Amino acid sequence: ASPSPQPPFAHAKLGPFVQARPELSNQFSQDTFLQSYLRRYIGKEYVSDVCSDLERFGQRVTEDIYQNSLRMEAEQPKLEQMDAWGKRVDRLITSSAWQDMKTIAAEEGLIACAYERNFGEWSRLYQMAKMYLYEPSAGLYGCPLAMTNGAAKTLELLQEDYPWIYERSYGRLTTRDPQQFWTSGQWMTEKQGGSDVAGGTETVAYEQTDGSYKLYGYKWFSSATDADVTLTLARTVDKHGATVKGTRGLSLFYLEVREQSGEMNHIQMLKLKSKLGTRQLPTAELLIDGATAYRISEEGRGVASISHMLTLTRIHTGVHSSAAMRRMVNLARDYATRRRAFGKSLHRHTLHVKTLAAMEVEARAAAIFTLEVSRLLGRQEVLGAGPTTAAEAEVLRLVVPLLKLYTAKQSVAVASEGLECFGGQGYIEDTDLPRILRDTQVTAIWEGTTNILSLDVLRAIQKSSGSVLLHFRDEVTARLLPAKEVGDLEQSACRVEVAMGQVLGAAAQMSPDQLQMAARQFAYSLARIYMGALLLDHAAYSKTAADVCCAQRWCEQDLSLLSTTANNGHFSHKSQEDNLDLVFDGYPH
Ligand code: UCC
Ligand code: FAD
Q1: CB 88 near ligand 1, within 6 Å
Q2: What ipTM did this prediction achieve?
Q3: Has residue 310 been placed in a domain?
Q4: CATH of the domain at 223
Q5: Looking at the domain assignment, is residue 210 inside a domain?
Q6: For residue 190, how far is its CA from the centre of ligand 1 (angstroms)?
Q7: What's the CA gap between 194 and 218, in Å, rounded?
Q8: Residue 560 is part of which domain span?
Q9: Do 27 and 58 form a contact (C-beta atoms < 8 A)?
Q10: With contact defined as beta carbons under 8 Å apart, do 140 and 280 qualify?
Q11: What is the pLDDT of residues 340-356, one digit of tens each?
Q12: Predicted TM-score of the model (pTM)
């Protein structure tokens, strides 16, 4: 008798098919675009050292660093407020994986490498390229590092005015020694105002006889609450008990979170926030009840002084957003070769590959924007003042908010599209894919929302009396020149040029009130134009089919959003009323 057939489903058998998971391979070696940018710009004497470190690190981020991030997501931070005997302890419990990240960050020199300046003007570019590989595997440890980088930069700039604070802290923030390494927080947001910091800050600072201050206040969001130090804003109280309202009343303070004894510096952690994403990251509400702090700005110059930190943390946000896109596209690309539907692999379905290609264009545009901003920052830091760098400094001031606001929105869209590329699996928590979307959503909110950064673009223009736009125009024009010499790129270069004329022309016609309302479309237009110019310039340099195609496709979108919407009457007085009527139709206002 013939043997009875083996049924495919029986007892422990779950069927023969197991879907191959998406795999991560070396994130540097497979990133041809990143390599091409770095090899183009980094000085010949440094490029091989930089690339060999990134090659090694590109592998490491797929191994222990990524495994750490999974443990961080599984073992989220907890707050123990009282001990068993009723003593207030405010003990923040973080996972060993989170703590390991601090060691890794120091050993890898993730902060140090920018301040050692071993690679000259390319040291920042090297740092941010390394962060770009690190971020998607770092489970938000990039957040304390961003703030640490911002604090180091701020203290470096204030070194001559506050040498004592610099001596005390800068070396710790920039060391490679894990035992010595300190991280910093950035406490700006209070209950009444995260955007309107000047209107919302209630924290007050009382000067002591030794020149230090005691701070009292309530900080509504403080990320990476396990920081060793923080930079924070407070309103100094004069000898009559009075404070100055608004931005002129705010000063910047340096504060060590713990006293020498290890006790908290008169700070209580009232609550850990329960968040949509960034769950690995301890974000707390803090009561500051007489903490000792040191003023590190002139009185009333707090916002201007902390803006050095904002520049760094906003660039880091751009790195995080662009790196999240790169990771999502890499995973989706790999999966497309492993998953089959309708009799063939997904990467043989033209519609699926078209979807991936659109994501790839966004990821490359964001990457080149991030790298370019990092390169400009490095030039400022190392080359100092000069006619070229002065113009570049103005452009840098303009493009930092553009980078942050634009890439944040892109990353949410690409992460969302990316999840769909995995079908139902993209929605399943233990694939670690949904986390990518959750962790990108925050990038549009923290470090200034999209609207606030669009208004910051106007601030930068106003502060320069408009000259920044002339430098921006010159920079874009120069970037387009080589592309105009390449047949396949010429038309796209002309589109960018025309869009720039239309957008700058439309902006020049607007009243300050209209510009406020149009700030977002203005910012988006400038970002698209700048990214278009960078992609075209790079395609003209590399001439690879992928770079040419990417630049062409980027330039097919509406690059002159501001003038398009202005031509449709969106910024008229009537339009303001229409918006209110539309939004509050049937609702009291
Ligand atoms: O969210 C936060 C941390 C999250 C975790 C970090 C993660 C990083 C990435 C990690 C990746 C994994 S910390 C909170 C961040 N908060 C914000 O970003 C605040 C958003 N709001 C704004 O940016 C507002 O525009 C304000 C607060 C700057 C507005 O303040 P004021 O006082 O009303 O503004 P003023 O009066 O216009 O500016 C005061 C001075 C001026 O200088 P002077 O007096 O010389 O003219 C401005 O030019 O500050 C100067 N200033 C700036 N300078 C203002 N903003 C800037 C700037 N961005 N750059 C240079
Ligand atoms: P609001 O200012 O109330 O803004 C609400 C809405 O109004 C937004 O859409 C905004 O764009 C819009 N809006 C406000 N003003 C204008 C305007 N003039 N024109 C047009 N639109 C406007 N802060 C810290 O200081 N330190 C931290 O470590 C920190 N960590 C954070 C971690 C997480 C996970 C999150 C979510 C936030 C964190 N923040 C931190 C706070 C963050 O920086 C603020 O939430 C953010 O700046 C927005 O401020 P807000 O929440 O007060 O929003």
Answers
A1: no
A2: 0.99
A3: no
A4: 2.40.110.20
A5: yes
A6: 14
A7: 12
A8: 465-578
A9: yes
A10: yes
A11: 999 999 999 999 999 99
A12: 0.97
